[in-house]
Amino acid sequence: MKCLLLLLFAWTLSTNGSAQEEKIAVYYYGDSITDLTKGAIFSDLDDYASGIEENHIDPFTHISRKEFFKKIEALKGKVATYNVDELFMEWVKINALIKDEHTLIAHLPCYRFPFNGYYCADGVYITGTDKDNSKLNHSRVIAVNGLSMEAVMEKLKPIARAVNESDARLTFIYYLFSPLVIHGLQMSKTRVDIEYTFVTPQNDTIRLKPVASMQKIEQLTGDTIKNKFLRTTNNKNANWHTYVNEGDYMYCRIRGCGDREDDSLIKQLDNMQEEITNKHIKKVVVDLRDNSCDNPPSLLSFIDFLSTRPYTGSEQVYVLIGRRTSSAAAIKALAFKTRARAILLGEETDGSANYYGDPHTFKLPKTKLRVLYSTKKFDSGVGYEGPLRPDIIIPELFSDYITHTDAALQHVAKHQVK
Predict the structure, then answer these.
(1) pTM above 0.90, yes or no
(2) What structural domains does the chain harbor?
(3) How far apart are alpha carbons 261 and 363 in whole angstroms?
(4) What is the pLDDT of residues 126-144, one digit of tens each?
(5) Of all helices (H) and strands (E), which one includes residue 337?
């Protein structure tokens, strides 16, 4: 799991612009609060660096030990030149150089502007707001303080932990509406002087300096459109399946399983095998687009079951992958491809087919922040490097989202393998 710890950032605002940037109040595990200051960060940099070296199974594959510690020393020497937001972002940048999706200085800003968004192939769009800004729902975001979305992406890429486009896009949306991050990456002079430019569905251009508040993404007004897709029709169950008449395929969504056997998953997979066999179902779709879980034996047995089916032009297994397919799910998708001749549809995964994981944590003494670090290396065994890439790219478009269109499932319904 990428975010085992959630640290909620906020700070005390005052009318004095300089005073408001002196500290960050960090909330973690319920009501515990600590003040994150430049002095605390400076004091913890050595403990962070030594903790990574001593605990991480192999931290210096993408950055050498010498260069890692050189950057820590350089940051310590420049502490006086940064405000607290900039200092924290420089620290996060160093951590990102390890390029391990499970190694992080755990944080989740919740003192944020009241928007949630999605990075689509045809633009960055608002998919959730508070009531005061509801008129901006489904608007396209085109600039932050005059910087284009492409320029903002370039500013945010250095804090992305992985080395692929999917992780960059997730990082982009994760931090796009965080005053701390926008200010810390020097896209604004203060936390409050941040202007967003939107183009509404009516094609009006609106410039707004929103007011940040202690508001989590899930507290924003949700977008009901997301509940109109097949993949979201049964959110009560992590794993479920159904037969789809239009397209003549069995659809199976797997969002969770863990490394231990789950009776409900075993039962579901057994039922699927029985239905596929008895009803002579030729097309099977496994949706892993929201999956980061491990590989229980029952799932591997299901892959082996699919591998025994005769391969013809009209009999095929499809696996849907995307930017939220991470950790063991990438290896799982690759197993479907190599062992069951599955066709991969969608976007490249966030996680790599070979990756470091099984994260543990250590706590820093002054900031009280927790650092996640990997303790194991996971190898797909087939020499595949980097994120898992689809056989057929199906980009996520906002034009599809707004019309409730799942382009990947449309492809499955309309196309046959010859």
Answers:
(1) no
(2) 7-223 (2.30.42.10), 225-351+387-414 (3.90.226.10)
(3) 31
(4) 999 988 999 999 999 999 9
(5) helix 328-340
